Amino acid sequence: PARHAARRAVRSEMLAWMFDGWLSFGGFVTLLGFGFTAMFVCGYVFQNHLLYIPSLPQAPRHVMFQPAQFQWHGEQADYVNVPLTAADGTRLHAWFFRVSADAGVARQRPTFVFYHSNAGNLSHRVPNIRMLMERLRVNVFILSYRGYGQSAGEPSERGLVLDGHAALDYCLSGERAEIDPRKLVLFGRSLGCCVAIAVAAERSADVRAVVVENPFTSIDEMIDVVLVPMVPPIKYVKFLSKNKWDQLAAIARVRAPLLVVSSALDEIVPAHMHARLHDAAKQSEHREMHVFVDAKHMTAFQHPRYFDRVGAFVDAALSTPLDGQHDVWKHPSGHVWRSEPLPASPPSSSRATS
User: Fold this and answer.
1) In angstroms, rounded to a whole number, what is the distance separating the alpha carbons of residues 32 and 147?
2) What are phi and psi of 337, to 5 degrees?
3) Full-model pTM
């Protein structure tokens, strides 16, 4: 009997060990399932907060830098605060920079409707605004999207498109004598390309040209590029994305002259996306792509030919007769220009000392 009792005890211990093992494995699977479920639920609920970045690490969204803080003074730095209201009632905040305080002089120059890139508010673009004005002699109208800067609301795809229309509406309204509504250029960079393309797709007749710098094709494709390498299962739940930004479909409806600025070394948006968008804009009256072979996502404007190329395109678009004759264009529609590689910096002659 003692021997049988010992065997029963061993069997019981083995069964208990197996049962505990199954419980541990089941618990692990359950915990893993809950973890993935929680991640996807949070990703769905908070996706707008993950996609849109109104603040910079050292600059909360409401903090507005002034031109003087960038050592910019004079009449061109003397901007005008412009309150806007989007079609859904959201209050927006914008700045208008005039190339001259003389309304007659300013009106002779085009106005860039500037749709800025993602992180930060409109004031973080002051250095680039200054360069646009000094190099191209243009007025600049720039707004903070809803949820950015001093604009109310929360960002979303639909909301940012409404904001883009509100900015164009203001420039067309005649409220500012310095703005000639027949000389408007939509200018978008990165996320701002989405807004510029969406507005131009519906209102090409209201603008003379569209310039987009390093645009992406869609959020779904950007998920494949940015998130899937880090979290592979996320590719199976892309359908949960509320922000699509299908730019291939939108740009196919743009009829205004279009310039796609492409940074060949773009480390965020693959350069092939820029090319695909350029190729898809077949309804554009005239389209070009200018490739800066040494530039990264946010450095194209630092290339020595950047402003010459953008300025030449805009001048040609403004010179194009409104009756549809396009004899002012130097190249046929669809032309792709590539910069020459910049010369390497000479090595320093000084030697490091230990």
Assistant:
1) 35
2) -110, 135
3) 0.84
